[in-house]
Design goal:
Strand order of the largest sheet: 2-8-7-6-5-3-4
Bound molecules: D-malate
Number of strands: 15
Number of helices: 12
Oligomer: single chain
Distance between the termini: 56 Å
């Protein structure tokens, strides 16, 4: 008789963004033809930049000729892309060996897969509000989760605490959903804490490209001590519009060891067993992002999303609604007006303004009473959504 993974019984009925999609579908079924303003899941609206598209086309042509055709790609990533990413880090003063960069199919996949490195039943510290996949992936894996709530008083920034014993610590900076960015001094405290306690930090840097304040770190490896305690997980989804194209990378230093095992070697062992690599075509598209041309094109796209953030925050300012984020991050985290609960505010916005957002409670209990807007929509749609937001919230 098959024994299913009983950890699944401890999960919520459905994943946050799937649940929102279901609610949205139910609304559209009941109101056919209604146009919705989508500020919910952080899905990009700008097409891929020209540098990436040209490289993708060229790579398809390469696959069409026997002289340039590629079969299986190296499981841990093509050398050309690993080197391009290492060079990008070097440009920020972070020296990596290309073998410390692993090409992935995206951050969300990797954040779950990487748990293979840790024993089942590990204790995992998750500062909240947090991207809900952290919790769900660890519930599925049977790990023990310690929720670390953060709040408005400290700008939603988590503080390390040596009395909390954890094997693995998730840090997301810029944070999804709050947009809070860990300043160097605080990130250093987390690094020192992890090195002292033997924990490993999983540093989710999926939104680093949105940082505009030069004093803030883009990578945990900009700071001393990180090479012995951290794994950094990055994505081209939000940086370069690859949500539907799928490409990411993970930095796992060769100096990271626990229990006498080298985690970089373990990850090589894992990847060479569990994947056959990412397609040549996608990796060529990704390589183009790290050229000067690619970098300037993606900066222009990010500027569009930043402008969306300005339009939404101007509406919130006029309405007197408290918010944070939107500056170094593509998300705005706001307090629901009138002390409303977050799923109630979701319903109000959907029913009265046809706006889809994300309820704060979906990111952990301390997110109750808050709400998240994504700035990844098109400028025209975002402007219309901001107008409707003003009209509806004025009446609340
Ligand atoms: C979000 O909206 O939090 C993200 O787009 C979800 C994801 O990256 O999977």
């Amino acid at each position: 008789m098959l024994n299913p993974n009983t950890n699944y019984t401890a999960l919520k009925d459905s994943y946050l963004f799937y649940h929102i999609a279901q609610k949205t579908k139910a609304y559209l079924d009941a109101h056919p033809g209604t146009h919705l303003y989508r500020l919910g899941i952080g899905d990009v609206s700008q097409p891929l930049c020209k540098a990436a598209v040209d490289a993708l086309h060229q790579a398809v042509d390469d696959q069409a000729a026997s002289e340039t055709f590629h079969g299986y790609m190296p499981e841990c990533g093509a050398q050309f892309l690993r080197e391009a990413i290492a060079a990008h880090y070097a440009g920020r003063g972070v020296m990596l060996d290309a073998s410390e960069v692993f090409v992935s199919s995206g951050a969300s996949d990797e954040l779950g897969d990487i748990l293979d490195l840790f024993a089942r039943g590990s204790t995992v510290l998750i500062p909240e509000p947090a991207y809900p996949a952290y919790v769900d992936a660890n519930v599925m894996a049977g790990n023990r989760i310690v929720h670390l709530p953060t709040g408005k008083a400290r700008g939603f920034l988590p503080l390390p605490d040596d009395t909390i014993e954890a094997d693995v610590i998730y840090l997301c900076s810029p944070n999804n959903p709050t947009g809070a960015v860990l300043p160097k001094e605080l990130l250093q405290q987390w690094i020192d804490h992890a090195n002292r306690t033997g924990a490993v930090i999983l540093f989710d840097a999926a939104y680093e490209a949105f940082i505009e304040d030069d004093a803030l770190p883009h990578s945990i490896f900009e700071l001393p001590g990180a090479r012995t305690c951290a794994i950094e997980i990055c994505s081209l989804s939000k940086t370069a519009g690859f949500t539907g194209t799928r490409l990411g990378y993970t930095v796992l230093p060769k100096t990271l060891e626990r229990g006498g095992q080298n985690l970089n070697a373990m990850w090589v062992r894992n990847r060479t067993t569990k994947t056959n690599g990412i397609s040549y075509i996608l990796q060529k598209g990704g390589e183009a992002i790290f050229t000067d041309e690619g970098q300037s094109q993606i900066k222009a796209q990010i500027a569009v999303y930043k402008q969306n953030a300005k339009i939404l925050t101007a509406a919130l300012d006029d309405l007197g609604i408290w918010y944070t984020g939107g500056k170094n991050a593509p998300y705005i985290w706001l307090q629901c007006p009138g002390g409303m609960e977050s799923w109630d505010f979701f319903d109000v916005l959907l029913q009265r303004a046809q706006i889809i957002g994300t309820p704060g409670a979906g990111f952990g209990a301390c997110g109750e009473g808050y709400f998240r807007f994504s700035c990844f929509g098109s400028p025209a749609e975002t402007a219309k959504a901001a107008k409707r937001l003003r009209e509806v919230c004025k009446q609340l």
